[in-house]
Amino acid sequence: MKRILPLSIAVSSLLLSQTINRIEYKGLFHLSKDVASEISGIHAGDEFDINKIDESLKKFYKQGYFSDIWVSLTDNNILIYNFKEKSAISKLQMNGYSSDDEQEALFAELGLKKGDLYDKDKIDRAKKRLIKKIEAEGYYDTVVEVTVEPKEDSIALTFDVNKGEKIHIKNIYFNGAKKIDRDELEDALANQEEDTLGWLPGLHNGVAHLDQLKYDQFRAKDVYMKNGYLDAEVDAPLLRVDNGSYIANISYQIKEGEQYRLNNINIEGLVDNIDRDELLSELHLAKGKLFNIQKLRKDLALIKERVSNLGYAYAKVIPNFRQNRDNHTVDIDFLVKAGEKVYINDVIISGNYSTKDRVIRRDVYLAPGDLFNLTDLKDSISALKRRGYFEKVDIEQERVDADRINLIVKVKETATGSIQAGGGYGSYQHFMLNASISDRNIFGSGISSSLSFDLSKVSSNYSFSINNPRVFDSEYSLGMNIYKNKYDFPTYQHDTFGFGTNVGKQLTRNLYGFIGYSYSKNKIDTNDTTNSLISSVFSNEDLSYAKSTFNIGLTYDNTDDYFVPRRGVILGGSLGYSGVGGDEEFLAYQAKFGAYYGVKDLIDYDLIFRYKVRANMLQDEGHISGPEKLFLGGVSSVRGYQPYTIAPSTYGKNSNGDTTRTINGGKKSLVNTVEASIPLSEAAKMRLAFFADYGMIGEESFSEIKRAGYGVSIEWYSPIGPINLIFGRARNAGLLERTSSFEFTMGRKF
Predict the structure, then answer these.
(1) 353 in helix, strand or coil?
(2) Could you tell me the pTM of the whole model?
(3) Segment 676-708, tens digit of pLDDT
(4) Cβ 228 vs Cβ 148: under 8 Å
(5) Which residues are paired to 456 by β-bridges?
(6) Handedness of CA 199, 202, 203, 207 (dihedral sign)
(7) What is d(CA 101, CA 96) in angstroms, rounded to the nearest whole number?
């Protein structure tokens, strides 16, 4: 038997003109013999060709399964391929960097998992990725050693990590920077000096991010380009590290040049149906103003979107600059290359294992046969995110031919249903027991429903609700709820049984209107307040009343996510009339506004600012029972106070000379909220929010009573749904107003 050495001229000459009688494949596990034969391209009856054998070996090696392959030829011309397959990885372990429960995800990020075939090049690439990841966290001189331990039929890999030391930036020097403030330059960088209280989340702790250092050069230049310095030059940063203390200084060499102003702006190549003058008037850049690279990018996106909305999916907008260095002005010509109009060939849904395709399609504003529209594409992504069914949403464009594309809607579903049960003990409520079952997307239909109960010494609450946001996939919604609540307040007991129903319609893409009806039967029982310093004006006598209410309202919502929006506004208002039947006769006006603004694109940090305002007003048309009046305090209004604590009150003295408080309730209220939310743990889907609430309430005017609260909350998107842990503090609590330092909610938006 001869062992064939590919490309060997000596062996090749001995085997000329021999015919292969049979081919055998030995040592195969991952490939069948039929597949191996197809790969080799050599068959029984073929003449022996050393070059073909050599090519077949290269093809086999490309499969990635084999560490060694050799060919042998028997005396009766049987060609034998011998394979030695790579060992499978049966164990992956990492020491010195991550906890055991995080390692599987970390190795997957590095491109390794159990069951993979051992490949030294692949291991080396994983090692380099790990070092780069650790360096991104600020560690210097990281060393990773990989130990390979052979097992019976596999191997075990152990990564031993020495993270080295963190580099702390002491000083940053901007040599040559005279016209731009150094703080403005430093704020744009990923690597910054340590802030005061830099250990707090959201502030800079001075730790170097070596993987970002090469990009800081361009971030600094971007600051100059935002301020009109078109000729500015920023050299690559020079990092000097003291190997003893691991303290570093960074220096930049800068040539600033002169500021440029816009002399003329023109758009060439526009397609029909776009008014050039109108579009020019909408641009952020303006004649006579300083050049700003950030505004230029916005204008490029604006022009591209206008052109793409007419079907030109592959439109390009190229800016051409003409600088006049004598008077430091610049002319900009936007050159539009529209290409061909593109139509939607098909909309393909992927990633949905529960949600039905039709539920997703009804929020995609492009269908087969439609002309491409970029705004419709963006609005579709936002609409799908607002549903709260998906953790991630993306729509990719797949080109079919010159004038047709497929839209690939890729979703990653999130938990929409939950079964919860719990209990606890509180100083006021004593032992508490609660349970609920809910789902925002029952069987993937888009219908939401919940059933819950909550029991304690002072309360019992039972409720059921169901809502279909798109009845028969139409633009109409239908919902109903039924509930029974009993709560023992310090001064009275309120027992309620009620139900409600509502019908709504999607009026426009972001505007929703609704009408509804609700009815409740209420009973008030007076508690003994003889020895209490706090009482309610409506707890002086027992009463029962019925409330029958019709309401109508509008809601506008163009936010980009259901739980954690980073862009958009929510605006709504409603009018309710209680008086058609029942004992109550009053009008209730409600208005709300919320604005969300994420600044990650500006500062490369996922900071979200939120502003919310809620206003309520009651207009007496005959009778308003005390429990129907307005009160502030608690999660939904001024945090740091207990619910129903803030309200117009009458103060007096009891027989002991102690101050007493009689709570009257208000008819007008207004609450302002400012929040800043930052990531706390991306892996655990937790955020930290700082908040300040300011509320006003009164009987005749909004400003009779003013209260404020502030604090922090932990926003946790847990496997059982959103949980909000609130640590608040009342700022200016009034006499006998109860405060609260901790509250929590489940299932609510953040």
Answers:
(1) coil
(2) 0.68
(3) 999 887 767 889 999 999 999 999 999 999 999
(4) no
(5) 432
(6) positive
(7) 14
